[in-house]
Amino acid sequence: MAALTWPTGGKEHEEQYTMAEFVEYMSSNLLILPSNPENHNVFWFEEAGDGHPPPPQSEVGERIKLGLQSLTWFFWDSILIQFWELKISNGRRFLTTSSQPFALKRLFKGLSWYRKQCTNHRVSVEEGEELGPLGRVFVNGQPESSPDVRFYSIKEYPLREHALRCGVRRHMVLPVFELQQQSACVGVLELVSFNTELLLMYFELCQSLDDAFKIFNLRLLHMDTQSQTQTEGRRLALSEIKQMMYKVVNETPYVPLAQAWIPCGGCSISGQCNCMERAYFACDPAWNKQYELINSDFLVACLFHKLQGGKGVAGRALSSINKLCFCRSIHAFNITEYPLAHYARKAMLAVSFAICLQSVHTGSDPYVLEFFMIPGNRDESDPRFLINSLLGIMTRQLRSFKVASGQVLGEELLVEVVRFCMDDESVYFQKSPSDRYPLGFKLSDPDSPAEERTPSEGCRAEPPVIKFAGSSGGDVDSSTQSGNSTGFLTGADQLARTGKRERKRPGFQISYQDLQTHFGKPEKEVADILGVSQSTLKRACRSHNITRWPSHVRNKANPSMFEVKIAEGSSGVSPSCSNQSTAMQQDIMIRNNPGTITDQYTSSLFTVKASYRTKTVKFQLSMSAGMARLEEELGKRLKLKVGDFETTYQDEDGCPILLTCDEDLRLCVQTLTSLGLTTIQVFVLQ
């Protein structure tokens, strides 16, 4: 018997066993039935290694074996497919792949190591236990997949570290059902691979698997969901949505991607839809050219995975009472809270808003519209501005629609805002009837169900609804946290309120301490040291509130040092120290910018936040400043030549307005301050 070899890193996992070496390594006599010399091999146990007969092949296992054998399309060399069957021992239920059929095309050592470890592993599916991907799929009856297992935590995927040592990157688990009994899950099918190519290839493989299994009265959930017959009413409703989304992604510079979800055929329970499929998406051509969104795993995953009520921003909009939901950090969801979380992280998507609507053309059928927005500085972004513009466009474009809660677009609306805190609170933006779109909020715990939340002990029993000064001059509710008169958390106020409790989930678990030890080094060098790409390093920095890499901190106290000190404070600030934290941050700001001590608190100043492609800058101008001064400041900060760019803003109707002269700038300030906004948002186009 061959000695047990173990992965030692490097490329050893890509080496291959001979068939004899593989059979000896698995420590059992295997029956090998190649379906095609150039296709793949199906394995199962013929006899146990000790000479005793193995447990009899179950009837389900036999059908899985035949289904894998009949599979005619097996495109990747580096893929392992293995079946986990439900077993019961001493009254406890668990999944096991020991003695179950599995398939390989090439006998890579890494996949062999992974298979060997799995045969010694049991996955409990008992209520209250840590399930892992296999258990979650069996219990929930929904597929789960990840473009890279490094996005998982150990708790989410107990075999994560072993999978990484074996070279596994892409991971997918599919529930297996009896063809005629959709509720009877008989096990799960696991697919693992070294390959990180597009999910579309996995999707095609899954369709082939589903076709092969149907012959043996098995199926994979959703693999051939019948599209609903498109009635004339559905066609009219979708036509309105398509026109609106086209307008949004082509005319608003901060929404590069929008999607529409409709009820999934055959997936409703008691007349209430809890499962949706994507019917349409629109993508900004310029943004797609830079980030290749259309070809991304994320959009394919949205086709493969159905929208589930209560999951992610769109799912919470579907199942919540108010039918609107916003989150500025969707990458912070874990995979149980948002099945597409790993794909969103890979696509660098962060800010999302969703609304659930109904059309007069189709009665009570829900339509969930999901918008992804370009993130600026997380602490500075004003969600009111983004949501106000979208609601304005929808009010004008979607004439046959109303909010699924029964409210009319343009009436008072509450927007649930998901923040990652340990409190069982909820956040809402409110549109008051006296103003066009002023907003208020209360916090929301992403772990709590979207339709019902009970405040935890010590939290506010009745979270405050905050009204903002708008065109009618309303006041800010006195129950608002001090120092936050705008209804969203910025600067020191956010540090004081969420510094200790916010859950940081950087994509590959890069801690702040890991980053801190490399401050002052070139960004590319640090990425190489940590073994990640520069884009991954940037995402990790953003997750720790480091908005710019401090590459020269040893030489001078520059703005990056200010950002780094803010990040350090965010790791352990208690609510009782909020005033002290605020004072500390203001002191740092003053010491780094001594020339602004007086002007900072002058009432004749206004704040400008400018977005240019993926960059965002923020500065203050005097009310007496004109277009020449504004363009000079923009050119200096964005390194653009004055005269080579245009500046726009969005008015109260969400329409882009070009700034060309001093009068345009004054009108811009008057318009946005009338909406209760304290920051003027402009967009720079070249």
UniProtKB/TrEMBL annotation:
<keyword id="KW-0539">Nucleus</keyword>
<protein>
    <submittedName>
        <fullName>Protein NLP6</fullName>
    </submittedName>
</protein>
<dbReference type="InterPro" id="IPR055081">
    <property type="entry name" value="NLP1-9_GAF"/>
</dbReference>
<feature type="domain" description="PB1">
    <location>
        <begin position="605"/>
        <end position="685"/>
    </location>
</feature>
<dbReference type="Pfam" id="PF00564">
    <property type="entry name" value="PB1"/>
</dbReference>
<keyword id="KW-0238">DNA-binding</keyword>
<feature type="region of interest" description="Disordered">
    <location>
        <begin position="440"/>
        <end position="463"/>
    </location>
</feature>
<dbReference type="Pfam" id="PF02042">
    <property type="entry name" value="RWP-RK"/>
</dbReference>
<keyword id="KW-0805">Transcription regulation</keyword>
<dbReference type="Pfam" id="PF22922">
    <property type="entry name" value="GAF_NLP"/>
</dbReference>
<dbReference type="GO" id="GO:0003677">
    <property type="term" value="F:DNA binding"/>
</dbReference>
<dbReference type="InterPro" id="IPR000270">
    <property type="entry name" value="PB1_dom"/>
</dbReference>
<dbReference type="InterPro" id="IPR003035">
    <property type="entry name" value="RWP-RK_dom"/>
</dbReference>
<dbReference type="InterPro" id="IPR045012">
    <property type="entry name" value="NLP"/>
</dbReference>
<feature type="compositionally biased region" description="Polar residues">
    <location>
        <begin position="477"/>
        <end position="488"/>
    </location>
</feature>
<dbReference type="GO" id="GO:0003700">
    <property type="term" value="F:DNA-binding transcription factor activity"/>
</dbReference>
<keyword id="KW-0804">Transcription</keyword>
<dbReference type="InterPro" id="IPR053793">
    <property type="entry name" value="PB1-like"/>
</dbReference>
<feature type="region of interest" description="Disordered">
    <location>
        <begin position="471"/>
        <end position="490"/>
    </location>
</feature>
<feature type="domain" description="RWP-RK">
    <location>
        <begin position="494"/>
        <end position="580"/>
    </location>
</feature>
